[in-house]
């Protein structure tokens, strides 16, 4: 019995000593990791700035495949966030500020412990240097956990080393794998469409488009509006000096409708128009190249771009369907001027595709939607 008594006493002394040791550890920590990747700085910034991508590159998802994620409607920029849950564990990442292409500042909640996260992006020798920094303060239980695992720097550092490696791998393949196909001449008939027009800085266009598409889909469904196909973006006017653009999100209607005067969405129409259609399979960073190839096709075939008409983009397959940029499909329509009888060289070498939207109906339907002015 005395041996057992001494044994328990020894255990108590060890536990007490360990507790005192843990209590004296500095709870404050700073963890820093860097990675140089081949992807352009702005592309890397945009990828990490969109929190929906974190589920893809974060090593925590690899270790915990049953993790559940809940995202804000706007998943990029200031105010965006995602919550995660894995059994009894929970957390949240929220972007509190950002400097376009250079810096992202976030608050992280990991099971109730709050820390600051910084992402810095710098050009270096034709590549991009990404620096991750996590600053926080550990509670007693976290001191014990990280102490057993080799320390907070090792635990957090290893997680983000793997995550940065995933970013490099994903961006190198997913962003740089793409295909541009000139589908050729196509004619769209007259159609009515539901639309909302905004003006924003050019650097914010790609961030705003998913929000606009979400809003118009939600408005259509809420008010039981019969639409045709998928939403499109119509580019109206660009001010290169101010670097701002006016653009419209729209969706074709089965028939003419009316919206209330208070609604942020109105009904408009597009006349019958001739286009050269191009399909981009891949990341949006290649849209410029896709349009340049389209304009080159127009020039080589002695056609003329119609500057009085609008350039259209249809997001056939986007992030809402697939997290892999290499599989995204975007259809581009560049308007052209035509003669009375289009010549044979209008036709592409590939199989011709003709889009036939709904014609203007004889009857109308009146819809008085709920005003949805929230952003």
TrEMBL record:
It comes from the Bacteria. Residues 348-375 are annotated as: Disordered. Residues 351-375 have a biased composition (Low complexity). Residues 204-337 form the GyrI-like small molecule binding domain. This is GyrI-like small molecule binding domain-containing protein. It comes from Flavobacterium branchiophilum (strain FL-15).
């Amino acid at each position: 019995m005395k041996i057992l008594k001494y044994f328990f006493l020894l255990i108590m002394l060890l536990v007490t000593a360990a507790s005192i040791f843990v209590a004296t550890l500095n709870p404050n920590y700073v963890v820093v990791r860097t990675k140089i990747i081949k992807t352009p700085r702005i592309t890397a910034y945009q990828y990490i700035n969109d929190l929906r991508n974190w589920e893809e590159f974060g090593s925590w998802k690899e270790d915990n495949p049953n993790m559940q994620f809940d995202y804000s409607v706007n998943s990029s920029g200031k105010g965006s966030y995602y919550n995660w849950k894995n059994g009894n564990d929970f957390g949240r990442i929220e972007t509190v500020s950002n400097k376009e292409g250079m810096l992202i500042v976030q608050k992280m909640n990991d099971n109730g412990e709050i820390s600051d996260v910084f992402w810095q992006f710098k050009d270096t020798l034709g590549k991009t240097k990404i620096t991750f920094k996590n600053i926080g303060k550990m509670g007693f239980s976290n001191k014990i956990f990280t102490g057993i695992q080799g320390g907070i720097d090792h635990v957090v550092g290893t997680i983000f080393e793997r995550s940065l490696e995933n970013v490099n791998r994903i961006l190198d393949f997913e962003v740089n794998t793409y295909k541009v196909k000139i589908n050729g001449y196509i004619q769209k008939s007259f159609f009515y469409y539901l639309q909302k027009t905004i003006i924003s800085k050019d650097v914010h266009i790609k961030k705003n488009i998913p929000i606009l598409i979400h809003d118009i889909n939600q408005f259509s469904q809420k008010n039981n509006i019969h639409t045709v196909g998928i939403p499109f973006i119509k580019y109206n006017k660009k001010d290169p000096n101010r670097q701002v653009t006016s653009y419209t999100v729209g969706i074709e209607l089965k028939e003419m409708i009316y919206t209330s005067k208070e609604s942020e969405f109105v009904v408009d129409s597009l006349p019958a128009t001739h286009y050269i259609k191009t399909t981009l399979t891949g990341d949006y960073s290649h849209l410029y190249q896709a349009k340049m190839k389209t304009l080159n096709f127009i020039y080589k075939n002695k056609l003329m771009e119609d500057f009085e008409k609008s350039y259209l983009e249809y997001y056939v397959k986007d992030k809402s369907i697939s997290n892999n940029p290499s599989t995204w499909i975007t259809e581009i329509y560049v308007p052209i001027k035509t003669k009375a009888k289009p010549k044979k060289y209008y036709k592409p070498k590939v199989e011709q595709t003709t889009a036939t939207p709904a014609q203007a109906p004889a009857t109308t339907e009146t819809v008085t939607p709920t005003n949805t002015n929230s952003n």
